[in-house]
Every structure is written in structure tokens, then in C-alpha cells.
Design brief:
The complex is a heterodimer of chains A (about 400) and B (about 280). By secondary structure, chain A is mostly helical. Helices cover about 65% and strands about 5% of the residues of chain A. In chain A, strands 2-1-3 form a three-stranded antiparallel beta sheet. The chains are: A mainly alpha (about 400), B alpha/beta (about 280).
């Protein structure tokens, strides 16, 4: 029994409608995801970008004898509520280093109070009416300015908002990541090579394989507990240190590196291995000279992504004590340190308006580093990808 | 089936399907002596009780329908089957009077003496130069740059590829055409100076002109090397092989001088296959 085109089209209409509807639904979900992404970035940039600027006030500093004990004595009385409390310690320190300066005075730009900073940026602030008037007068005479915030990028954490910076957290993250990479990369790659190239396919290796795959899905805070129990309590690694943090994150990164390395090794065609064996290579020579070079881009990408994941991790570090107040930028693997996400977490808990801005600023720095790392991974993959 | 070896062209014809009485006079001509070789993939028996003698400095072709075990047998000769975990072999494969499956036989040493060329050209993803120089350097046959260059040139000349690639030795081996890549693989195999070269359907991925080039090459190479080739192409076997073995369902049905085999096959199955009645 044959059908005319009209009859068939009639039936087809419903199917076409259905597929069009489905297409719109899928596009809609993509659009929704994109919208959230845009909103997130817009909000972060809106809140975080002001953190990269900081208010400064131009004033006359008179280095009197009294200022050597109390830095506030160097300033005009009415200015004191506007400038940063840090002068209390900064001015005497300067004077102790240069005793010749006592008795002189000079015009300088001084770090303003965070309330002034927030007032100038149009945020919530706690300045009184008179203070606002005094400030407005100085703004008009050009003695107040928003400048690039060198403190934010150049110093460690502080309880004084205008003095708090992300540098100690950045350094802590770098140190922690060095430890993580130094442990998880060689162990992960070697494990994957063994499992993929040498291990017999038996029950034991299958169990190991399943366990490694499951490890990648374990809540990260459990790795923190493991780190606390084994590294700190059993091995006595100093707590809060980049060493213990890096070791804990290495545990977390290992399965990611193992899985991505195995995938990379598996994608090397069998014919390359045969070619190697055919000319009399031993198994290790085949792996080292022929398989690994081809798998390297994949291994690198996987490791970088694993590292980026570890870099954004906070939960396991809370357990090993890396969410700490670290005012000094320290370059040591065994001293207490903090990392970027932990610093953001700390700032997020501060009540002052100025710290809200710091939190968003910290997130921007972290995001920038993570996005560059991922972009680097993509570039590496594209650059070293080989066809055969 | 003739149970006694017959003398032809002054040379011993090989044993067919049954134990072969060792002939001392012919022994030095033997490359491989295979006795009662059985092979299983898991529970599947792929080779059944093979007995065959392969002669030096000759081209021996292994023919037969797909899945008859000819490639599997070829891989027994340099123990490439070791790479497949489920494979189990029994029986004797002897080279130079030594069992290649013996525990003290190092498969790396064996593969140095028994090179292999694969169905699909598989140059290393390195330069043409490196493709050839890599293995000799690894085996400590050469070390200095000049020695390497000399060896690379010689191998490429032997493989008939030198004139085509001498100006681009440092370009990737994969940039060559399929036929050139296959000759590069042959050059790579002969660079380690093996005794035997196994070829697993070396021309099945190539066009007719490249195929003819490789066939000519095989003819020249047999002066220096023993060549054992698997082919689907009966005309190719007839053209290049001195001896031909016909495999069917894991057994060697017939093994003889190629001319004899193709003119007067002793077995009905061989005749049917050669005349294209199945396969």
C-alpha cells in the first residue's frame, strides 16, 4: 500500500514539530548556562574590580619627636579619622630607620582608611557627617585620589582592611602546588604506565582500577581527614604548612592524573608499540621512546587540569589547618601558610564592607590564574598534538 | 600426501604436515624448524599441529583464507604473540637449533634477528633519519653521527628509498606516501641487520604501483635476508615466493615449491583455493 507525499508530510509534521521543540529546549539550556556565567562574571567584576584601587590622601607629615613613639602625632588632628591606622606603626619604624628625618616634614600620599575608600567608591561606609565634609573638601582640592592598589598585590593578610593583601596566599598556593605536583605527577604517571603497559589484566589490577576511578569521586574533605590522621598525627608533618597541604592535595590529584595519563597512553595506537617491539625494543624502551612522547600532551593537560582543581580546593585544607591568618609572606615549606581559596574564605567571614570587596578581588585573582592554567593546557595540547 | 621428502632443483623440499626427518645436509639452509606447533587464543585453537621448515635466503609466502592462522603463525616466529595475554603456545619453533620459546631465549634478542614489517605502514612519528637510526643505536650497532648517517643511507638504498628521500631525511616519516612509508619500515627493519624479515601482508594497504615496487624489493632482499611473507594475494605469492604454504583453519594443508604448488597442487583444497573457488 503506497502513500502519497501529502499523507507522508502530514505524518511528518508532528515529528518535525517535536524535533524543533527539542532543539529549542537544548538551545535554551545552553543559553541559561551562558546567562548564569555572564551574571557570575559581571557580579564578580563589579564587586571585585574596585578592590584593585585604593584611596590615598595627600597631606603634610611632620616627623616630630613624639611621632617616634606614636605615628599619629605626625598628622593633622582632623585627618586622623580618615587615614589608615597602619601609620601608628609605619611612621615610628621609618623614623627608627632614618633618625635624621626627625624634625623635618614633607608632603606625601598616605594610605586612607577603608571607610574613606568605601565612601569614595560609593559603597556603604561609617563616616560621620563632619568627616564626610572634611573629606569632600579634600577631594575638591585634589588631595584625595584612588590609585592602583599595590598593597592588595604586595602584602599579606591584615585585620586592617586597607592593609590586607593576597600575596601571602598567592605564595602559599605556589608552594603548596609545587609540593602537590612534585608528589602526584611522578607517582601518578608511573602508576598509570604500570597499569596500562606492564600490569597483567587480572582480578587484582581490575580491583585497583575500579578503586582509582572511585577515588576521583570521593568528597575532597575526606582527603583532608586522611591528611590530618596520617601526615600530621602519624608522620608529624607540621600542620598548616604548604608541605602538609600539598601532600593532602596530592592525594586528591593522584586519581585525576592517573586516569588522564591512562587515557593518553591508551590513545597511542597499538601499531606504534608493535613497531617498537618489531625492531627489538624492550617494553620499557617502547614506553619511554615511543609511547610516552606521543602521550605527553595528554598527560600534561590532565595534570594541569588536576592541578587547577587542587588549586581551587578549600575543604581538605581547612582540616589540615591551612585556613589561617598569615600576615607575612613566607617562603618556607614547613611554616604556616594559607592558600588563595582559604584566604577568600577567611575574608568572606569578615563583617566589614571593605572585606566584601577584597573577597571578590581575591576570587578574580584566583579565577584569572585558573583560567590561564586551563588555557595553557589547551595551548599545550594543540601545540604538541601529533597526527600519525 | 607424500610422506617422503622429494628432491627438487637440488634442494630438499620441505616436510608437509608431518614430522620431517632432519637432513643434516639441508640443515644449514634452514631458518626455522617448526614441530607440532599448537596455539590457542583462550579456548580457541588457532594453530593445529604445524610442522614446517622455512629456508634461508628465500621468500616463503603463507597464503590462505582469512582467519586461517597464517598471521598468527608468522607472529610465533618472533614471539609477537607474547604481547597478547590470552595466547598459549605449545610445540617447537627452532631457529639456529634453539627453541625460541625456551625460557632462556630473550625475546628482544630474537626480535633483533627476526625483524617485522606490518600490514599498515607504521613509521615512528619521528624523522625519516630517526626512524632508521633509532634501533641500531639502541642495539649499540652504531654510535657516532657519521656511522649513523652511513647506516641510514645504506638501509635506505637497500630499501630502494634513498633517491626519493635523501633531501628530506629530517622530515617526519609520516609525511611520506603509503608505499614510501612501507619501504621506510622495511629499511628500518633491515637497519638492525636481522637474519629474517617477517612481512604481514605488507602490500594490502598499498596501491598496485607501490605493491609492484615492494615485490621487486622482496626479490632483491632475499639475497641477504630470509623473507617470510603473509599475503592474501595469490598472484603475489606466485610472483615473489620461492616456497608457498597454504593454511586452512589453523592447519598447513600444503607446503611446496611455489611453481609446483601453483601448477600441480597435491591437495584438492589447495587447488580449490588457488583457483578461486573459495577464500
Amino acid at each position: 500500500m503506497s502513500h502519497s507525499f501529502d499523507e507522508i508530510s502530514q505524518q511528518l509534521k508532528r515529528r518535525h514539530r517535536k524535533s524543533t521543540r527539542l532543539k529549542w529546549i537544548t538551545m535554551g539550556s545552553l543559553g541559561l548556562a551562558g546567562l548564569f556565567l555572564v551574571l557570575f562574571f559581571a557580579d564578580m567584576l563589579n564587586k571585585g574590580l574596585p578592590a584593585f584601587q585604593q584611596a590615598y590622601i595627600q597631606t603634610e607629615i611632620s616627623y616630630t619627636q613624639e611621632a617616634e613613639t606614636d605615628g599619629r602625632q605626625a598628622f593633622d588632628e582632623e585627618l586622623l579619622p580618615l587615614i589608615s591606622r597602619t601609620v601608628v606603626r609605619v611612621i615610628p619604624m621609618e623614623l627608627r630607620n632614618n633618625p635624621d628625618m626627625i624634625g623635618t616634614s614633607e608632603e606625601q600620599w598616605v594610605l586612607a582608611n577603608s571607610e574613606v575608600d568605601q565612601y569614595l567608591k560609593g559603597h556603604r561606609h561609617r563616616l560621620s557627617e563632619e568627616e564626610q565634609e572634611a573629606l569632600d573638601a579634600r577631594v575638591e582640592s585634589g588631595q584625595v585620589d584612588l590609585r592602583f592598589n599595590t598593597t592588595f598585590f604586595g602584602s599579606g593578610d591584615s585585620k586592617i582592611a586597607e592593609n590586607a593583601g593576597i600575596l601571602s596566599a598567592v605564595v602559599g598556593t605556589i608552594m603548596t602546588m609545587i609540593v602537590t605536583l612534585a608528589i602526584s605527577f611522578p607517582i601518578g604517571v608511573m602508576t598509570a604506565i604500570y597499569l596500562e603497559e606492564f600490569a597483567p589484566d587480572n582480578r587484582l589490577t581490575q580491583i585497583i582500577e575500579i578503586n582509582i576511578n572511585n577515588l576521583a569521586a570521593i568528597p575532597s574533605i575526606l582527603f583532608g581527614l586522611l591528611g590530618l590522621a596520617i601526615f600530621i598525627n602519624f608522620f608529624g608533618v607540621p600542620r598548616s604548612s604548604p608541605l602538609v597541604g600539598g601532600m593532602t592535595l596530592a592525594l586528591m590529584t593522584l586519581p585525576v592524573i592517573i586516569i588522564s595519563t591512562r587515557t593518553a597512553l591508551r590513545s597511542v595506537p597499538e601499531s606504534i608499540r608493535h613497531a617498537g617491539f618489531g625492531v627489538g625494543c624492550s617494553r620499557w624502551q617502547v614506553v619511554r621512546d615511543h609511547v610516552l612522547p606521543l602521550a605527553m600532551p595528554g598527560i600534561m593537560t590532565g595534570s594541569i587540569i588536576g592541578l587547577a582543581q587542587a588549586m581551587g580546593e578549600t575543604a581538605p585544607l581547612i582540616i589540615v589547618g591551612m585556613v589561617a591568618f598569615i600576615p607575612d609572606v613566607g617562603v618556607s615549606f614547613t611554616n604556616a601558610a594559607t592558600v588563595m581559596p582559604a584566604q577568600i574564605f577567611t575574608w568572606a567571614g569578615e563583617p566589614e564592607q571593605a572585606f566584601v570587596e577584597k573577597t571578590a578581588g581575591g576570587i578574580l585573582v584566583l579565577l584569572t590564574i585558573l583560567i590561564s592554567l586551563n588555557a595553557f593546557a589547551v595551548v599545550m595540547r594543540k601545540k604538541f598534538e601529533r597526527r600519525w | 600426501m607424500n610422506s617422503h621428502a622429494t628432491v627438487m632443483n637440488g634442494q630438499q623440499t620441505p616436510a608437509v604436515g608431518q614430522p620431517y626427518t632432519r637432513n643434516e645436509a639441508a640443515c644449514h639452509d634452514l631458518s626455522f624448524r617448526v614441530r607440532d606447533l599448537n596455539l590457542w587464543y583462550g579456548k580457541n585453537q588457532a594453530l593445529k599441529n604445524l610442522n614446517i621448515d622455512l629456508f634461508q635466503k628465500n621468500v616463503t609466502a603463507l597464503i590462505g583464507p582469512s582467519g586461517c592462522g597464517k598471521s598468527t603463525f608468522l607472529r610465533c616466529l618472533n614471539r609477537m604473540n607474547d604481547l597478547i595475554p590470552s595466547v598459549r603456545t605449545e610445540g617447537l619453533v627452532e631457529m639456529d637449533g634453539l627453541d625460541v620459546n625456551a625460557p632462556k631465549m630473550d625475546e628482544v634478542a630474537l626480535r633483533r634477528r627476526v625483524g617485522m614489517v606490518f600490514q599498515k605502514p607504521n613509521p615512528f612519528p619521528k624523522s625519516i633519519f630517526e626512524n632508521i637510526a633509532y634501533a641500531p643505536r639502541m642495539h649499540d650497532l652504531v654510535s657516532r653521527k657519521a656511522e649513523q648517517e652511513e647506516l641510514v643511507e645504506k638501509a635506505l638504498r637497500d630499501a630502494g628509498l634513498w633517491n626519493e628521500v635523501k633531501d628530506k631525511l629530517h622530515e617526519p616519516g609520516t609525511s611520506l606516501s603509503g608505499g614510501q612509508q612501507q619501504r621506510l619500515c622495511i629499511a628500518r627493519a633491515i637497519a638492525v641487520q636481522p637474519d629474517v624479515i617477517l612481512m604481514d601482508e605488507p602490500t594490502s594497504a598499498l596501491d598496485p604501483i607501490s605493491t609492484a615496487t615492494i615485490e621487486d624489493l622482496m626479490d632483491k632482499l632475499k639475497e641477504k635476508f630470509t623473507i617470510i611473507t603473509v599475503t592474501h594475494n595469490m598472484q603475489q605469492a606466485a610472483r615473489v615466493a620461492d616456497y608457498t604454504a597454504f593454511f586452512h583453519l589453523g592447519e598447513i594443508i600444503e607446503y611446496n615449491d611455489t611453481k609446483v604448488m601453483f601448477s600441480t597442487p597435491a591437495q584438492k583444497k589447495t587447488e580449490d583455493y588457488i583457483s578461486g573457488r573459495y577464500g
